[in-house]
Amino acid sequence: MTRMITEGSLHRAMPDFTIVLVEPRVEGNVGAIARSMANFGFSDLVLVNPCNLGDEAYRRAKHGRPLLEAASTVTELEEALKRADITVGTTGIATKREKAFHRQTLTPWELVPKVTSMDGRVAILLGREDYGLYNEELDSVDILVNIPCGPEYPVMNISHAATVILYELHKAAASINGERPREASGFEKERLLHALGELLTAINYPEHKRRRTTVMFRRLMGRAIPSKWEFYAFMGVLRGATKTIRRLSESPGRGPSS
Amino acid sequence: MTRMITEGSLHRAMPDFTIVLVEPRVEGNVGAIARSMANFGFSDLVLVNPCNLGDEAYRRAKHGRPLLEAASTVTELEEALKRADITVGTTGIATKREKAFHRQTLTPWELVPKVTSMDGRVAILLGREDYGLYNEELDSVDILVNIPCGPEYPVMNISHAATVILYELHKAAASINGERPREASGFEKERLLHALGELLTAINYPEHKRRRTTVMFRRLMGRAIPSKWEFYAFMGVLRGATKTIRRLSESPGRGPSS
Question: How much is the average pLDDT of A62-70?
Fold first, then answer.
């Protein structure tokens, strides 16, 4: 449904984008984001448990009103993400979180070449005005993005943050011309995570480390965005290791060569 | 007075910046711009014949309140520009004006290298919410900048436009500073590739595929650029798999749990 606004067929290689606002509490911000989406040629907006949208939201949306009216409202984040192949979470406190929770963030200008080179649908999540995205929400996304600010007051208004990201995406769309290779779909990504999970089980990976290692792996893949061939090669290694371990466990004494 | 926030003396090559709002009519926008200036480390704000600034302006400014309180108010644009060495005007309708009045606009990313390489003070003018800058005001500036939007609705909110420009200026300052998270060194990357090689050997990975799988892995890691923690977590998985296989091969029948 959402496409970067196309001028001729120049943008055909861009993915689709959905902007997901998670529990926005200030209706004016929702309206301002709708306006910014309209400015930069985006149209697919999903609201997760939003505040009520009244006159202020529509006043701030201006000519973004139609897309605000067309926005879907859902009660669960999962529902908002079900069409997404890649999910991008925004966070205002990159540095601290990186140290504390091993989260590595991309800048908007690092994000853009990664997501614009793929096919499919990219969901961009913006969190609550006061708390942003909760940790479990941040853990579930493929890519974390942070807009570098000065150290004294790095907490941006949510519609300003959305605008910066939409601006960078639009900038890239305006400069993209050629076809790009097709990248891993969400289905393939989940298969890769499943294959990792099976290997972790096979090697008796400590239960308390599993979650963060899985998150780490998801993030690595989110930043690298494997091509189809890379995906199959990587799957081959993970499955090869798991199969070797299972075979050795079940048929002791045969050794790794078969 | 205004400086990009300096960390050490790394930003000393940046000029000073003044943000000049010409006859802003919506106090919330003035507050939102003050917040964005605080986010990106700017502090010098001049208001030309502004609307009254009340609760809404200060509410939207949040921690940008001090710079809003310190803003100068003047009645003439000339007064606002008297300290400026270079003046930059923003316009939302680049194309028409460009054709009609031979005005060539720069994008924000074209603007940045031009102004950041200079010394002195740069004034960035943002016009009225409804009419922007008048023709005579546009005629008086040194550089015209336009933020490329989609063709359907290119008129941005004034605080969004300010944010995009401040973001681009800060980005330039940050890259002058080399403000990047720590990345995996070559040595660590080689250790990761070595660990992969050992796993490939352990699982009897076909010799003719080894080279391109290793290249694939190097490329994936090159694109993802693992953090130190991600590096160690990934090493743990690869080594864990290799060790499990070796142990099972050497002591058949013990199973994977130990």
Answer: 97
Q: Which residues contact B84 (CB under 8 A, 6 or more apart)?
A: B18, B121, B122, B123
- Note whether A233 contacts B255, CB cutoff 8 Å: no
- B145, B175, B205 - which closes a domain: B175
Closest Cα in chain B, distance from residue A97 (Å): 12
CA distance B39 to B16: 16
* Res. B242: pLDDT tops 60: yes
Given a cut of 80, is residue B69 above it in pLDDT? yes
Closest CA to A32 of A145, A116, A115, A156: A156
- Interface predicted TM-score (ipTM): 0.77
Q: What is the pLDDT of residues A193-208, one digit of tens each?
A: 999 999 999 999 999 9
Q: Which pLDDT score is estimated for B169?
A: 95
**Pairing of the two strands A16-22 and A121-126:** parallel
Residues B184 and B190: their CA atoms lie apart, in Å, by 10
Amino acid B217 reads F
- CB distance B139 to B28 below 8 Å: no
Contact status, residue B216 vs residue A229, Cβ threshold 8 Å: yes
Q: Which chain B residues touch A39 with a CB distance below 8 Å?
A: 149-150, 153-156, 160
Tell me: the pLDDT tens digits for A204-229? 999 999 988 998 888 888 877 787 78
d(CA A233, CA A212): 24
Contacts of B149 in chain A (CB under 8 A): 39-41, 170
Q: Are residues A103 and A153 in the same domain?
A: yes
Q: Could you tell me how far CA B43 lies from the centroid of its own chain?
A: 18
Percent of chain A residues past pLDDT 70, beyond the cut: 83
Residue span of the structural domain in which B93 resides: 4-175
Between CA B171 and CA B92 the distance in angstroms is 22
Residue type (1 letter), A214 = T
Total tally of structural domains belonging to chain A: 2
